[in-house]
Amino acid sequence: MGSVFKAKVTRPMPAGATIVTRGGQQWAEWRDASGKLKRARTAGPKASRPGIIVEAATFTAKFRDGAGVVRKVATGCRTREAAKRVLADLEARSEKVRAGVLTPREAEVAEHLPTPIVDHIADYLKALANKRGKGAHLTVSKTHVENVRHSLGEIAEACGFKTLRDLDRQKVLDWASESLRRPDEAITRKDGTVRIRKAPGPRTINAKLIAFAAFGKWLFDSDRLIENPFARLEKLDESDDVRRRRRAMAADELRSLLQIARLRPLAEYGRSTVRSPRGSWPSKSRATWHKCPLTADTIAEAAARGRSLVRPELAERLELQGWERALTYELLLTTGMRKGELASITVGDVDLSDDTPVVTLRGIHAKNGKRSTIPLRPDVAGHVRDWLADRGRRLAAQGKVLGADDRL
User: Fold this and answer.
1) Distance between CA 72 and CA 91 in Å, rounded?
2) pTM, full prediction
3) Buried (b) or exposed (e) across 94-115, using 16+ Cβ within 10 A?
């Protein structure tokens, strides 16, 4: 026969609490907001952090499941009568498992059905953020987790999904169709101006459908659903939703990019100013002038002007910053490494002594989890060699030495 009880839980030590010893045990005493004296037993000297032991606000059910294992399940009920009704349902389900009416998996799924959908989404996002692939490194970025959070929340709210019982494939498909027909929306800002929020395109809607299908698969894999109701969601046609066509950079475009990256920090200080069109602002207002935009034709002149306007030590620091940016772009473009992979490269991972200079990418940092050796073009290797030599000289001037474990 099962039972219901309020478990003992540990809470943080209340502010202003004093510790007293009564009957050989330590107790915390404090006054609440109304001035009433409160008392609770402390967690004890072996606890990892100071705290008090109090009774939980809700009841826990203790019963023997269909496999004969004693389990404790939080009921979420604040009254004993409601908790006993939950216990009765759990015991009835266990009897059906013992009788062969329900499988253990079906019984476990039934326990998750009344849980709010927001709790399942929170558990899924936590599992997604901690997902690790080959090389035991995290495979999902924080940005992707936030995008998934927004997508799941939007669909769940639009379709009225409160618990797993409410999940319906057709409602999600109807949401996708309605989203595609949604007109552009005019948004009025606080300053009275109006901006137009464009309606989502097929590619945006499909990305959210994929996120919800992955959520359904996780619910199935974690024994929260018998099947994934969104396993084969029909995606919208994206053939007419071409946003950007990718192409390789031409050689002159690459040279222009590297030049601009190197000159940009100094050029920002050398941008010329022009007067703005006459308006209603005061004569000394910042709005009476603005900085001219930088272009490929004017950036060299602006950089030279900026070098003459700033202090020599600042000019040196800005030139170094531009050199680092240009080298970063050059390495990314010529090796195919991703930003995170390049950021993991240390001085010891670079071998410039051989006739074929290479960079070693460790498996723990590679996306595929495999260690790889990436060859460097001779001209790029020369640029890296110059960068390391200059960096070594700068560290030596500070009494430091460039080590193999230092980042490139």
Assistant:
1) 12
2) 0.59
3) bebbeeeebeeeebbbbbbeee
- Count, residues in the chain: 408
Q: Which amino acid is at 190?
A: K
Q: Kindly calculate the radius of gyration of the chain based on its CA atoms and give it in whole angstroms.
A: 32
Residues 306-322, mean pLDDT to the nearest whole number: 93
In tens, the pLDDT along 53-80 reads 888 889 998 888 877 888 888 888 889 9
What beta strand segments (E) does 233-356 contain?
273-275, 289-291, 350-351
Instruction: Please state, in angstroms and rounded to a whole number, the distance separating the CA atoms of residues 310 and 315.
Output: 6
**58, 26 in Cβ contact below 8 A?**
no
Half-sphere exposure of 238 (CA within 13 A, CB side): 13
Measured CA to CA, the distance from residue 126 to residue 140 in angstroms comes to: 11
Contacts of 276 (CB under 8 A, 6+ apart): 287, 288, 289, 290
**Residues 198-209: pLDDT tens digits?**
778 888 899 999
